[in-house]
Amino acid sequence: EPDERAWLVDRLQEEQANRERLRRYSVRQALLNRNVLALSFVYFGAVATNYGLSFFLPQIVKAFGVSNFQTGLITALPYVVGVISIVWWGRHSDRTVERRFHLALPLFVASAGIASSTALDDPTMKMVALSIAGFGIFGCLPVFWTFPTAFLSGAAAAGGIALINSIGNLAGFAGPFAVGRISDLTGSYTGGLLLLSAFGFMATIVVLAIDHDRSLERVPGAGPAA
């Protein structure tokens, strides 16, 4: 609808003007900005946790002594929880117009869930812990991308987001490689999972330390998202 398009364009322009009113960054400034670098580390930790667990979850489940079909069904559980968390947690963040807590908490939940799973021998309880981790692993993703776009716009946003995404994507290799290497050396997934948990915990600490202006989350004259 033309009216909806006009409203959306006006809203985007108003958001950009609100950001640039406080500070306008060049591409170089964005690439060297400490918050952009911090967010790059956070995204690295989130992606490492995601890929590291995803690659080896089927093997972990298979070790329960179940069939291949059962392995597929059980492995899907953390992802089902993850889909729910993406939708519900993202909407909750929009509704409350709050980002820092909504990013830090799922990262911590992911870290705690993975760490807890290493201390549990019962397959059911282990999957409960890993499903809780799934809530955090996937719940943090939609909230994460509100951070760089809250203070960057235009070419600076493109450059900053590209840097964050590039560094984060390195974790797509590093996470699974580290888990696999540690499991080969120790004969167990425990060490690798604890490393993934540490990534999530460190990412949580960094999120809490990032400079974040909450006024940038709200467009002047606009209320919380429904």
Describe this structure in words.
By secondary structure, this protein is mainly alpha-helical. It has a single domain, classed as Up-down Bundle (Growth Hormone, Chain: A). The protein has helices spanning 2-22, 27-32, 34-62, 68-75, 77-96, 100-118, 123-144, 148-151, 154-186, 190-209.
CATH class: Mainly Alpha
Radius of gyration: 19 Å
Briefly note the structural class of the backbone: mainly alpha
Number of strands: 0
Counting DSSP H or I runs of 4 or more residues, the number of helices is 10
Biggest sheet statistics = none
Order of helices and strands: HHHHHHHHHH
Mean pLDDT value: 87
Q: Low-confidence spans: pLDDT under 50, at least 5 residues?
A: 219-226
Q: Which superfamily, in CATH terms, is the homologous superfamily? A: MFS general substrate transporter like domains
User: In the CATH classification, which architecture applies?
Assistant: Up-down Bundle
Helix content: over 70%
The N- to C-terminal Cα distance equals: 20 Å
Q: Number of folding domains?
A: 1
CATH topology: Growth Hormone, Chain: A
Q: Give the overall shape, derived from the CA principal axes.
A: globular
Estimate the strand proportion. under 5%
